[in-house]
Design a protein that fits this description.
By secondary structure, this protein is an alpha/beta fold. The protein has one domain (about 5-265): TIM Barrel (Alpha-Beta Barrel), CATH 3.20.20. It has 9 helices and 8 strands. Helix 1 (about 20-30) packs parallel to helix 2 and helix 3 packs parallel to helix 4.
Length: about 260
């Protein structure tokens, strides 16, 4: 069985450094060969390119722009009346992805509008989401980029996020599905069976301990040694994004991955 491949989520790790390009250098120095990020759009693209080229680190995933964060947006893919903004954001994401040779973009669904009841708007939001996913699939296929969708738990992290379970996320329009083990455990549990059930669709995995969203080897519900072995058994070839909140400094919390690298080499 081939060892798993990990990437540092530089929106969560190495935040001791303000500049994202500096975080790329830090990730490379820590032994990571790849990084992912949420939103890099406030960063100078040329600086990011220079950091990627200097380190040889791959950028494997970015998100579509969130919209107006101050107004409460967290993605626009399923938001009625915001289709034009979603398309503009997709164009920006593609620009950054192409410049950084990134082959995957997370198409964020967004939140149920304030004042709306989830059940009352679910069908409309789903229809908008499918429409936008179809549009994105056409755009991304021409660029050799894959779109992904990610369920985000509504019990702890974001009560209003529209896409909140892997079962809801299954959609023939998308070729790949995010498996964020933190969110999946909170919403559904049953991780062994869900890995088996959805494995053919899984294009990216993210990890954090539950419920604190800290390092995988911190105290919590999940046995990551078992989960890593499970993914190895399935011969998972994609990346595993380290999207967690370090309990101390990022470097102090990397003992778990150094142990993995030592025992799998």
């Amino acid at each position: 069985m081939a060892p798993l491949k990990f990437c540092a989520n530089i929106s969560w790790l190495f935040t001791e450094l303000q500049d994202f390009s500096h975080r790329i250098y830090a990730a490379a120095a820590a032994g990571f060969q790849a990084v992912e990020a949420a939103w890099l759009y406030d960063c100078e693209l040329q600086e990011l390119q220079r950091a990627r080229e200097a380190t040889g680190v791959d950028v494997v995933l970015i998100n579509t722009p969130p919209g107006d964060v101050k107004a409460g947006d967290l993605g626009l893919g399923a938001i009625p009346g915001r289709e034009a903004e979603f398309r503009q954001g997709l164009d920006l994401a593609v620009k950054y992805a192409k410049a950084l040779d990134c082959k995957r973009i997370h198409l964020m669904a967004g939140r149920v509008p304030v004042g709306s009841h989830r059940t009352a708007v679910a069908k409309e939001m789903e229809a908008i989401f499918v429409q936008n996913l179809n549009y994105a699939a056409d755009v991304l296929s021409k660029e050799g980029i894959t779109g992904l969708i990610e369920p985000i738990n509504t019990r702890i992290t974001d009560p209003r996020y529209f896409l909140d379970s892997p079962h809801q996320a299954v959609n023939e329009q998308m070729s790949e599905l995010f498996q964020d083990l933190f969110h999946w455990q909170i919403m559904d549990g049953n991780l062994t069976e869900n890995i088996h059930k959805y494995f053919p669709m899984i294009g990216h995995v993210q990890i954090a301990q539950v419920p604190g969203r800290n390092e995988p080897d911190s105290a919590g519900e999940l046995n990551y040694s078992y989960l890593f072995n499970t993914l190895e058994t399935y011969d998972y070839q994609g990346y595993i994004g380290c999207e967690y909140k370090p309990l101390g400094s990022t470097q102090q919390g990397l003992g778990w991955i150094k142990d993995y690298w030592t025992h799998r080499k």
